[in-house]
Design a protein that fits this description.
13 helices; 417 residues; 4-stranded mixed β-sheet; single chain; alpha/beta
Length: 417
């Protein structure tokens, strides 16, 4: 990192920035504030943005944290640094940890671990259930800073307990993130169909997603709870979301960038880096996802960043863990959706105001932004996508457009100018 990264000791003026409508602007970072200026002040350090585009705070709404419990895959400080490198200013940290985020002390411990870390800001999501399957102390978790509750990997599938948890979440007016239920149908990393048959791998039925969504929609309807499905990947799942919204259920939904840009063909010759959860789908479902992002059925777009160590990926396909890292590539790959007819403004809605609306985040005082060079060409290198994990779905993908500066709380947390 450069000397001015994460430093507020010296005032910094960034010149030659372009707004989204093409207007030039200079911005000054001073005393925790971001101010437009005509010229740099005397004594300021000056950075030339060379026409990089000014983007609002970028929110990745589904990031699987590894620490505590899986630090051998990725530490918290590594996660936030990778996010900043990708132009992401805020991440929602899902409680895929050991122990899970099922008590206030766990949330406070995460905050303490991040003290002094340089990178994106972590917004905590707490577990709906503790490790014994009992409902967590949801009210205390909200007081500790949780903005939502997630089933997590340790979700309890007893409907009575789910119903009770939904009722409590409604009283607290926090959304429930429903993303783990598909594992009850297995985690083979393949969708049932001709490709799975050819490969000789038992696939997960495509109807699993609809089953999961329908169940949670019914629970949300019964309790008037707010429900968010972050990883919708099938045509039938999308239709259920449309129906839920039309029926007045308080439902929002999104998907991960992989399901809009990659099909199951990418699994190829048993490529474990393409073994995801949910599994990749065929092109019919992928195009349905693209259209749902375009027409507003899906509200958010995320990386579903999931670090997996090489020892758990460089094994036979059926033995490999699911997941792929994606923080560095999310923004650049998301803008490739312009080629599918999704406008740049719509892509930014999916990554900024929409997740803020879903989770009640106020970015008005965040003093955060990203500078994106639309013309910068680069190739995604697995060695830089994660310090220890190399499970990169988009490995060696040539891209045009890259983050060159990330600012969080008026501090530069990543710079490539």
């Amino acid at each position: 990192m450069q000397d001015d990264t994460a430093s507020t000791a010296q005032n910094i003026t960034i010149t030659a920035i372009k707004t989204l409508d093409g207007q030039p602007v200079n911005l000054r970072l001073s005393d925790g504030q971001i101010l437009p200026v005509d010229e740099p002040h005397p004594g300021d350090k000056v950075l030339n943005a060379n026409g990089a585009e000014l983007l609002p705070p970028i929110v990745d709404s589904h990031v699987q944290l590894s620490e505590p419990g899986n630090e051998h895959r990725e530490s918290l400080t590594e996660t936030v640094a990778l996010a900043a490198k990708g132009g992401i200013t805020h991440i929602l940290g899902l409680p895929y940890t050991r122990p899970s985020m099922d008590r206030p002390s766990a949330l406070y411990a995460t905050k303490n671990r991040l003290a002094g870390a340089i990178g994106a800001k972590v917004i905590p999501v707490a577990s709906l259930f503790n490790e014994t399957g009992e409902m967590a102390e949801l009210s205390l978790l909200k007081d500790a800073g949780a903005v939502a509750f997630s089933e997590g990997e340790l979700s309890e599938k007893d409907i009575t307990r789910l119903l009770r948890a939904y009722t409590y979440a409604t009283e607290l007016d926090l959304p429930i993130i429903a993303s783990a239920g598909l594992k009850s149908f297995g985690a083979s990393g393949m969708t049932s169909g001709s490709l799975a048959t050819i490969m000789g791998i038992p696939g997960q039925p495509i109807q699993a997603e609809a089953f999961h969504i329908e169940m949670h929609l019914r629970l949300a309807e019964m309790t008037n709870a707010r429900i968010h499905f972050p990883l919708v990947t099938t045509s039938e799942g999308i239709e259920l979301i449309r129906r839920g919204k039309a029926d007045g259920v308080q439902v929002t939904a999104g998907t991960a960038i992989a399901y809009a840009t990659v099909s199951e063909i990418s699994i190829g010759d048993y490529r474990t880096f393409a073994k995801l959860m949910p599994p990749l789908r065929n092109d019919t479902h992928r195009l349905s996802v693209v259209n749902a992002l375009k027409d507003g059925t899906l509200d958010t777009l995320c990386s579903n960043h999931c670090p997996v160590d090489q020892d758990s990926k460089r094994v036979p396909f059926e033995m490999a863990d699911t997941g792929s890292v994606g923080l560095e590539s999310l923004l650049s790959v998301a803008f490739t959706l312009e080629g599918h007819g999704i406008s740049r403004s719509r892509i930014l809605e999916l990554l900024s105001p929409n997740p803020c609306d879903v989770f009640g985040l106020d970015m008005s005082d965040s003093a955060s932004f990203t500078l994106f060079d639309r013309n910068k060409s680069w190739i995604l290198d697995a060695k830089t996508a994660s310090d220890r994990c190399r499970n990169v779905l988009y490995e060696n993908l040539p891209l045009t457009g890259k983050n060159v500066l990330t600012v969080v709380n008026a501090k530069i947390v990543y710079k490539d100018l």
